[in-house]
Description:
With about 230 residues, chain A is mainly alpha-helical. Chain A contains nine helices and one strand; from the N terminus they run ααααβααααα. Chain A folds into three domains: about 5-80, no CATH class; about 95-125; about 135-230, Helix Hairpins. Chain B has about 230 residues and is mainly α. Chain B has a single domain (about 45-220), classed as Cytochrome Bc1 Complex, Chain C. Chain B has nine helices and one strand. Chain B has helices spanning about 15-25, 45, 50-70, 75-90, 90-120, 130-150, 155-170, 175-185, 190-220; one strand at about 35. Chain B is globular. At the A-B interface, strand 1, helix 5, helix 6, helix 7 and helix 8 of A face helix 1, strand 1, helix 3, helix 4 and helix 5 of B.
Amino acid sequence: MAEIPEHLLRRSAQAKAKALGVPVEQVLAEMSGGTATAVPEAQATAAAPSPTPSAAPARTAPAIPEGVRTQRLLTVVKAKAIQQVKRDPTDKVSVWPHLLAMEFVALLVVTALLVIFSVFQDAPLLELANPNAQPNPSKAPWYFLGLQELLSYFDPQVAGVLIPGLGLAALAAIPFVDRNRSTRPSDRKFAIMMFTFFVISAAILTMIGSFYRGTGFNFTFPWRDGIFFDL
Amino acid sequence: MFRPGSPFRKGYTDSPRNRSYVIMNNVLYHLHPVKVKRHGVRLSYTLCLGGLSFFLFILLTITGIFLMFYYTPAVPDAYIDTAALSTNVAFGLLVRNLHRWGAHLMVITVFLHMTRVFYHGAYKPPREFNWVVGVVLLLLTLLLSFTGYLLPWDQLALWAVTVGSNMAGYTPVFGDQVSFVLLGGIQVGASTLLRFYVLHVLALPFLIVIFMAVHFWRVRKDGGVSGPL
Ligand code: HEM
């Protein structure tokens, strides 16, 4: 407990002494004597009018007269603690120019890279679509190639519907399953492990589907048979 | 531009007050709060990935509108129009390239954004809902990319979409119906092209803009970008 200021102690002792009809000095001695626990006890047993002198000092207190309210110092609240309700100032910076300038640079860099890439690399355009001539292999867009890869291991209902459906649902459910409030990496090893495992698995499946599957979607090595992949 | 009221009304003096006005009085910048926590602007924290996803979406909208001027969603006009972009239209091929590479890049940035949010534990309370909104955004991004994939109507487009939408046909019980509604027929054809076109240029962008609005609103309501680790 915080140190109680001298003048408050005194005032409280005076009030108590007045109520109990004992000298202020005695009350003060009790208070500083560390017998604080004895005070409520004294009130509980206050009905007994003749305390024995040998009892603890607090027990010498006579019964409280009818209609007198005693006061006790429970705690001292520092003025600041209740009057300053403003939030602690956090370390903030103006969005303009600090954030906007950075966003603008990021935007320029990405635009520049994209334009340069687009100047040198044309988007693919093969022959006119022909429903009667299925190319071999036929591949889905790259972000679905992990799923197409799964099709070669599992039943289509599992690989094509169940796994992506459940995967999406599980992704959405993450915050409700992982109830651990900490964001410190050392506290969430398991969550990180699981997520990393799934991300890497998806990446590996997508890589295999993209680069290691050739004619008939059979396994190949890109350095041996070439790459069967269009963006 | 940097003055309260109207652009260039007076000179811009660099004071904290004017810096606040730049944000408060500009509808474009209004997505931002006036001030953000210092760590939120650190490039190493968000890696700008959410912002870049959004920026790529804007870029795709602009280049997409340009492409729409020259495109007919019919068989075989779609293919002819797309091929003509590289010969008949000034910068046509460049814009098409930007649109295509930008779209692939957006799938990547959205995915990376998601992993960055995960590793920061930024989906934890109070941000659970925003994570769910994010998952919807991821799905919409993939669908946008997938529907756009068909539009050039070349062999790549036709067969990639055939393979992709075959998966939807494996849906238990309703497989055939799902596939029929998606394709507008039993196989990828002219009606599929029209369907995917409408989804790609109208329905899905409309949806994703709504979800993005909710997403950005939630980022601010949840107290800005989550705290440092
Ligand atoms: C079209 C796709 C998306 C766009 C444009 C987008 C945009 C943004 C932006 C601009 C932010 C602010 C912080 C930052 O830049 O990292 C943000 C935060 C966030 N995003 Fe996304 N997002 C998209 C997809 C997603 C996805 C797929 C998820 C997760 C499944 C997600 C979950 C979140 C969460 C939880 C936050 C709060 C992060 C924090 O407070 O640190 N978003 N998003």
